[in-house]
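Students often ask what a holo structure prediction actually looks like on paper. The answer is less mysterious than it sounds. You provide the chain, you provide the ligand, and the output is a string of C-alpha cells encoding the 3D arrangement of the protein together with S-adenosylmethionine.
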Amino acid sequence: MNPPFPPRPTHLAWTLLREVIRPGDLVIDATAGNGHDTVFLAQCVGPTGKVLAFDVQAEAIHATSEKVSSLDLAHRVTLHQICHTRMEEFVAPESATAVMFNLGYLPGQDHALTTTAAQTIRALEAATRVLGPGGILSILCYPGHPEGATEADRVETWVTSLTDHGWRVAKYAMIGTKKPAPFLVAGRKP
Ligand SMILES: C[S@@+](CC[C@H](N)C(=O)[O-])C[C@H]1O[C@@H](n2cnc3c(N)ncnc32)[C@H](O)[C@@H]1O
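The corresponding C-alpha cells follow.
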C-alpha cells in the first residue's frame, strides 16, 4: 500500500532527518512514547551511533525498550525515565546532530499525562544547547486538544524567535482540516 499523500507530519519529520543524520551520530528522542521515533533514530545512527531517549512515563520507557530490543537495536539506545528538561545532565553541549520532540500524550494512555508548554519550552532551550552547529531540531505539535493548542502557540512563537539568532526554521501542516491540524516545525542551528 502506498503511504498517504501528503505525508503525515510524523513521516515528514523522518524524511527531513534521514537526510542529515549520519552513522555514528549522537541523536536525542525527547519524547520516547511508544518508541517509533526512537527506532527510526536508532536505524539512522547505525551500529556505532547512539540514541538517548527520554520519557516521564514508565509505560513509554517499557514500550520503547521492548521495541528496540525486538529489533536488536538496544545497544544503540539509552532510555531515561526523566523529564526532557534535564537532557543536559546526559548530553554534552553541542554534541548532538538532531533532537526530536513529538509532543502531546501517549496514545492509549492517560491523556492528562501530556507535555506542557512551560516544560516543553525549557526542554527546547536545552535542545538548542546540546545540538552542534548545523544540528536539527524537529518538533511535532498537536493543536487539536486544549493543552496542545496553548503549547503549539508557545512553541511556534519561541521557534520563530530562533530566526533572530541565525536559525533557519520551517513549519509544515495540512490545510482545510476540520480541527487544527498537527504541524511539524523543523529548524537548523547555524
Ligand atoms: C506523542 S507521545 C510521543 C510519541 C513517540 N515519539 C513515538 O514515536 O511513539 C508524547 C510522549 O511525551 C511524553 N512526555 C510528556 N511529558 C514529558 C516530559 N516532561 N519529558 C519527557 N517526556 C514527556 C509522554 O509521556 C508521551 O509518551
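The pocket of S-adenosylmethionine is lined by residues 31-37, 54-57, 60, 83-84, 102, 104-106, 113, 115, 119 (CB under 6 Å).
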